[in-house]
Amino acid sequence: MILASAVIHYSAAAVTDRGRKRTANEDAFGFSVEHGVYVVCDGMGGAAAGEIASSLAVDEMMRLLASGEEVAPTLAAAEEAVLSANQAIYSRSQRNPRLNGMGTTMVVLVADESQIRVLNVGDSRAYRLRNRCLEQLTLDHSLVEEQVRAGRMTASQAARSPLKNVITRALGTQSRVTSDVFEMEAEPGDLYLLCSDGLTRELDGPRMEAILSDDLSLEELCDSLVKAANKAGGHDNITCILVRAEG
Questions:
Q1: What residue segments make up the domains of the chain, in order of their start?
Q2: Over the stretch 149-170, which tens digit does the pLDDT of each residue have?
Q3: Which entry of 13, 64, 135, 157 is 20 to 30 Å from 204 by CA?
Q4: What is the rounded distance in angstroms from the CA atom of residue 129 to the CA atom of residue 219?
């Protein structure tokens, strides 16, 4: 008996938008289909500190994981890159008092043939659309979401809470950080979404699921998500990367 596994290839598209309320864009993203690395960050901090933090994180991740040979990084390499990105931001903030306290969320997807690994810190999220069913892959590191998971708050209470912007874990705010890791097998036809909370605060799961189920190109789907989020209010910067697994 000969067992054959499907060879999976990937394609991707991304878009970032300032939104309708913010004067600057503190989100950042980077990806390399050749290396199987996809990153979204959402910066925070006074003045331009959020932009600096998110850009530093993306630059460090891409430098360590998506330069040189076209080989997908190992999980250990991805985790080490997250630590390095955290240290780059933290060190920069320690050297410049005006940047003190800056940080960023991060969600990373690493694709190695059919093996998918997702790492996250903060409340930027990863989703998977499979057979037109959208599933959230990551867990937010936020005060209200942790209260929801503990059964101390309902989802509707969390959405209305004045504390909904409080992040419990971020890159750069402490000397060390731990990322959550999720591992799974990709199937041909899977569609992965990485996004900042400017998207998920405006669009609920069913709305995103409906948009992503449309028979459109990845670029068109990205644009549809951003347009819908802006139409719903656009209160924050909006960034998304779409990664499609193809047989």
A1: 9-246
A2: 888 888 888 878 888 778 899 9
A3: 13
A4: 16
